[in-house]
């Protein structure tokens, strides 16, 4: 996949150490838990990609399995049905999950993109990653005051990306009704930065 987002090694850890087995988030409701078990099996580990010492979590087998992908979208849709006015998806793999969720929920899709990718006037938010800094942007009129927003991304690592997107939504007057990410790297502490929000993640590493 282009624009890879590797599973980073926790600070102070030896990348050669054994990798903890993934688990299903214990806070999930029954239907999400049922699908999470199947989804976990569809994410494969690619060692030393895109560079030595990095373990890459590859979601392409999940995307290639129509029944598994549909089950994921259906289960997450039921979790948020009637609670959401817009889905805000974070570039780039957040678009993969955000678009079908917006369609299924019958709401609009708002892209949050890297700097310079949106054509109209934008708000921007700079944030810190585990490997540097970056900037996200959203169109100035993409979210309306009081709208209930579901933030969607594929991976929760340090939480910087999702937190920056949440800040953009709130600066436009939107309310974060929920955060959905497919997988979480718990050792990086991203959930702590999102303590103010209702975060749903299916697979925890």
TrEMBL record:
UniProt pathway annotation: Purine metabolism; AMP biosynthesis via salvage pathway; AMP from adenine: step 1/1
Function: Catalyzes a salvage reaction resulting in the formation of AMP, that is energically less costly than de novo synthesis.
Subunit organization: Homodimer.
Tree of life domain: Bacteria
Keywords: Cytoplasm, Glycosyltransferase, Purine salvage, Transferase
Biased composition (Pro residues): 7-23
InterPro entries, per the entry: Ade_phspho_trans, PRTase-like, PRTase_dom, UPRTase/APRTase
SUPFAM superfamilies assigned to the protein according to its UniProt record, in alphabetical order: PRTase-like (SSF53271)
Annotated region (Disordered), positions in chain: 1-24
Protein name: Adenine phosphoribosyltransferase
Family: Belongs to the purine/pyrimidine phosphoribosyltransferase family.
Recorded name of the encoding gene: apt
GO process annotations (BP): adenine salvage; AMP salvage; purine ribonucleoside salvage
One Gene Ontology cellular component: cytoplasm
Localisation per UniProt entry: Cytoplasm
Record-level Gene Ontology MF annotations: adenine binding; adenine phosphoribosyltransferase activity; AMP binding
Gene3D superfamilies cross-referenced by the UniProt entry: 3.40.50.2020
Catalytic activities: AMP + diphosphate = 5-phospho-alpha-D-ribose 1-diphosphate + adenine
Phosphoribosyltransferase domain boundaries: 78-200
EC number: 2.4.2.7
NCBIfam families the UniProt entry points to: apt (TIGR01090), PRK02304.1-3 (NF002634), PRK02304.1-5 (NF002636)
């Amino acid at each position: 996949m282009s624009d890879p987002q590797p599973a980073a090694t926790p600070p102070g850890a030896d990348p050669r150490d054994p990798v903890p087995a993934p688990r299903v988030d214990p806070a999930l409701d029954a239907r999400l838990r049922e699908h999470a078990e199947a989804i976990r099996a569809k994410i494969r580990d690619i060692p030393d990609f895109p560079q030595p010492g990095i373990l890459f979590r590859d979601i392409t087998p999940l995307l290639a399995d129509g029944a598994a992908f549909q089950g994921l979208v259906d289960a997450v849709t039921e979790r948020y049905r009637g609670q959401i006015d817009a889905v805000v998806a974070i570039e780039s793999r957040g678009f993969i999950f955000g678009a079908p969720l917006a369609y299924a929920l019958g709401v609009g899709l708002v892209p949050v993109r890297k700097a310079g990718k949106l054509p109209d006037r934008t708000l921007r938010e700079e944030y810190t990653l585990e490997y540097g800094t970056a900037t996200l942007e959203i169109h100035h009129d993409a979210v309306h005051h009081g709208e209930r927003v579901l933030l969607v991304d594929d991976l929760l690592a340090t939480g910087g990306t999702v937190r920056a997107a949440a800040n953009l939504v709130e600066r436009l007057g939107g309310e974060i009704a929920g955060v959905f990410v497919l997988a979480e790297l718990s050792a990086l502490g991203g959930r702590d930065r999102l303590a103010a929000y209702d975060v749903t993640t299916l697979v925890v590493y």
